[in-house]
Every structure is written in C-alpha cells, then in structure tokens.
Amino acid sequence: MSGGHKNNHRHDHDHGDHSHLSDMDARIRALESLLVEKGYIESAAVDEIVELYETKIGPRNGAHVVAKAWTEPEFEKWLREDATAAIHSLGYTSRQGEHMVAVFNSEDTHHMVVCTLCSCYPWSVLGLPPTWYKSPPYRSRSVIDPRGVLKEFGTVIPENTAVEVHDSTAETRYLVIPQQPAGTENWTAEQLQKLITRNSMIGTSFALTPEQVK
Amino acid sequence: MKAPDLHALEGMVLDGDEPVFNEPWEAQAFAMTVALHKKGTFTWEEWARALSSEIHSGEARDYYDHWLTALEKLAATKNLTTPGALKTREQEWHQAAARTPHGKAIEL
Lengths: 214, 108
Prior knowledge:
- The complex is a heterodimer.
- Chain A is mainly alpha-helical.
- Chain A is built from twelve helices and four strands.
- Chain A is 45% helix and 11% strand.
- Chain A has a two-stranded parallel sheet. In chain A, strands 2-3 form a two-stranded parallel ribbon.
- In chain A, helix 4 packs across helix 5 and helix 8 (136-144) packs across helix 9.
- The N and C termini of chain A lie far apart (37 Å).
- The interface between A and B is large, with 52 and 50 residues.
C-alpha cells in the first residue's frame, strides 16, 4: 500500500474524517430514496441510465492536464510539486477545494486509485465516476490483489513493475498520469488528448496507443 | 420506448449529442427524470414545461439546480411525494453522513 493509504488511517482518528454531503447531494438522495421506497422508480434503472450517459461524458479536463504534462516539462514539474495549483491554473477547480496529488506511472511503478465513495472522486478533472468504481469489491479486491484486478481490465503489468494502490480520501484525491505511448513524441497536446482515457487516469488501464485510435 | 428528445429542453448543455454533467448528483437528477418519464409518470412535454418555468423563475441557479427544483416540484404535483417529506428526508441524509466514517457507504 502507498503512503496515501496510511494517511487515510491517520485521518480516521480525527473528526474531519466523517462524511459530508453537499446540499444538492442530500436533496437528490432524499428524492431518490423516497421515490424508490414508494416504488415509483428502481435504483437499478436509475443507475443504468447514469451508466449510459456517464460513458459519454469523457474525462476531457483530466486529458488536458495529462497532455500538457506530456508536452511541457515545466508543467510536469509543477504537477509533481503542487498538483492542486497546477490543475487549478487550467481552470479546473472543485467546490470542495480538496488537495490533488498527481502520481506518475513509469517502468518502475504503476499507480491505481480506489475509494468507496463517489464523493472522493475528482469529478472536476475526471467527469463522473464509473459505477464499478464505487463498488466495494473493486476497492477491497484492488487492495488485496491489484494485479488480478488490473488483468480483468485487460491491463497486464510487467513482473518487475511495482503496483501502488492509492486510497482517495475526502481531503486528498489522486490523478494518475499514464506513461506517454511510444511513437507519439512529435504529437501535439491536442492529438495526445485522444489517447488519454478516464480509466488510464484511475490507473486501471494504460493510455491508448496510436494504433488504437486509428 | 424511444429516448426522450433532449433538444426539447431549454438550455440543455449538449456535447456532440449528449448531455454534459459537472457533478454526479446532476447525472442522478437527469437519470431519475428519464426513469420517471419511462414509467409514464409524466410526458416529456410536461417535463419540458416544468423545467422551463424554473429557468424563467428569475432565480439565479445553475442549470441542474433548476433541474432538480423542477423535478421536486413535479414529483409533488404528481403526488409522488410532498415538499415536507423531502425536507425531512434531506435532513436525515445529512445526519446519516455526519455519523458515517469516511470510506463507509452512507446509509439512512
């Protein structure tokens, strides 16, 4: 486990670690829970519609951040030192004002991110979380057997590459910076953005290769 | 059942041909509306009118804030719930969140 997870345990002992719902979040939960209880709608049907639409949204803001890091060494440096400020400089801020940490994938280390609550997801950068991201099995199995979970996503991590699992908290959210695919050295940031998927920024997959977007 | 015509909605933010959400609750509000419409609870025209009336209410709110307000009101108009029940339940969710340690799912 990474330092991120240890931090989470430290936070367990302070009162700020309890959950908080925004007013809008509480209102939507109120309406949905009442309508579900009375049988006017089914949670599963609502989730299905969300799933359908969330895949259309695309993590464009995050892709912008990653492509900029790939093409501008100065920005990459800033992102490593102070991801919160670097990301905010592009106009992507969240209302909660949480701390962002960028973790960079390399030949040595592959990073992936887990959290049980969608409220811990950096949606201002990544759009909406996929429904599996909130599922307890994804989180618990990622912690026990990250390589196995990654394999299910079709992502095979070489034996000599370490896998670090980061647990997002209400205070700290992670953005995975995937490795830039080979053969894209002369690409513009705009072209590169097409290679950067949401899952590559959660760390469940790699960035797409040039062949995959042809 | 055909998909609702999103273009019939005033101010709908479409990227290409799909609605854009900024936060998860917005997607939830959107999806609940589509689900209720699918069940025949209201017609898409009724929904478009309810949303339009919020947008023209003069209240300075974000688009999906208008959306959720319209949905709460339409749900009350259709006798699915009442403003009082919503308010009480909203408080219950806040209380549930306050007693839930981080990392655990929030339950009533």
